[in-house]
């Protein structure tokens, strides 16, 4: 594993500072990152069911502390994780080393990585990240550029509507304290039609979609057909333009 230093503009310094501050709790399943740990088995199974991860070249954009990246490596994928927050990357490296998991980590944005890694990956994942950057369309285009023809790109983010505000901000951050206050900005939430339009314009075709549901009584997540709050899109780059 190694790290590459880059200078980026499509990043919110406040967001990077927030994730750096919380980095040492990334792998604590009872910390602020508990939702990611609960979501991860569902998104991993969904991704693996569509692409069969074993042997694939995979890039995880906005990998944070490496929860998804490491789990995909456990499935036999050759995984690279990139992020712009230093401390979560360090945590990801240390945890992978401690677990004996081979994952490459680097400090980079998707846009910079795409300049040298165009068409290099079978699978690109960008999960719970688009709602934290100033220009999601630039990230989407970079993800498209980095995947090979016939390859897959997976996105997950949060819908923008009154229900998503009530669930992802009011309830999760202020009432139930599942997430730290200020984790999400409602204006940066993305409607499924908007994300689909951006992905289509970048050259991707929708293959599958799922909504992310949460039961506050059991504190369990599941994937289903309703995309009113959290949702995931599986996109594919055509073999021919």
Automatic annotation (TrEMBL):
Q: What is its EC number?
A: 2.1.1.222, 2.1.1.64
Q: Name one GO molecular function term.
A: 3-demethylubiquinol 3-O-methyltransferase activity
Q: Which UniProt keywords apply?
A: Methyltransferase, S-adenosyl-L-methionine, Transferase, Ubiquinone biosynthesis
- Annotated residues that bind S-adenosyl-L-methionine are located at 43, 62, 83, 127
Q: Which reaction does it catalyse?
A: a 3-demethylubiquinol + S-adenosyl-L-methionine = a ubiquinol + S-adenosyl-L-homocysteine + H(+); a 3-(all-trans-polyprenyl)benzene-1,2-diol + S-adenosyl-L-methionine = a 2-methoxy-6-(all-trans-polyprenyl)phenol + S-adenosyl-L-homocysteine + H(+)
What's an example Gene Ontology biological process for this entry? methylation
Keyword Methyltransferase present in the record's keywords: the answer is yes
Gene3D superfamilies tied to this protein? Vaccinia Virus protein VP39 (3.40.50.150)
Q: In which pathway does it act?
A: Cofactor biosynthesis; ubiquinone biosynthesis
**Superkingdom as given in the UniProt entry:** Bacteria
Q: Which family is it part of?
A: Belongs to the methyltransferase superfamily. UbiG/COQ3 family.
What does the protein in this record do? Answer: O-methyltransferase that catalyzes the 2 O-methylation steps in the ubiquinone biosynthetic pathway.
**Cited HAMAP family:** UbiG
Identify this protein by name: Ubiquinone biosynthesis O-methyltransferase
Organism annotation: Undibacterium hunanense
Q: Which gene encodes it?
A: ubiG
């Amino acid at each position: 594993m190694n790290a590459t230093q880059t200078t980026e503009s499509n990043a919110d310094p406040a967001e990077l500072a927030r994730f750096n501050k919380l980095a040492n709790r990334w792998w604590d399943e009872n910390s602020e990152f508990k939702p990611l740990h609960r979501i991860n088995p569902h998104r991993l199974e969904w991704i693996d069911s569509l692409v069969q991860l074993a042997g694939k070249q995979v890039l995880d954009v906005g990998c944070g502390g490496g929860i998804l990246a490491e789990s995909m490596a456990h499935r036999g994928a050759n995984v690279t994780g990139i992020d712009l927050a230093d401390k979560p990357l360090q945590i990801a490296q240390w945890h992978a080393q401690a677990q004996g998991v081979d994952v490459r980590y680097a400090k980079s944005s998707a846009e910079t990585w795409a300049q040298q890694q165009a068409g290099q990956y079978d699978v690109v994942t960008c999960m719970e990240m688009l709602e934290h950057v100033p220009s999601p369309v630039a990230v989407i285009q970079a993800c498209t550029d980095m995947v090979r023809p016939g390859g897959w790109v997976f996105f997950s983010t949060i819908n923008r509507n009154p229900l998503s505000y009530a669930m992802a901000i009011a309830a999760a951050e202020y009432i139930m304290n599942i997430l730290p206050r200020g984790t999400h900005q409602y204006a940066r939430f993305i409607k499924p039609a908007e994300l689909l339009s951006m992905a289509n314009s970048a050259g991707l075709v929708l293959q599958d979609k799922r909504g992310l549901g949460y039961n506050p009584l059991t504190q369990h997540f599941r994937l289903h057909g309703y995309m009113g709050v959290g949702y995931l899109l599986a996109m594919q780059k055509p073999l021919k333009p």
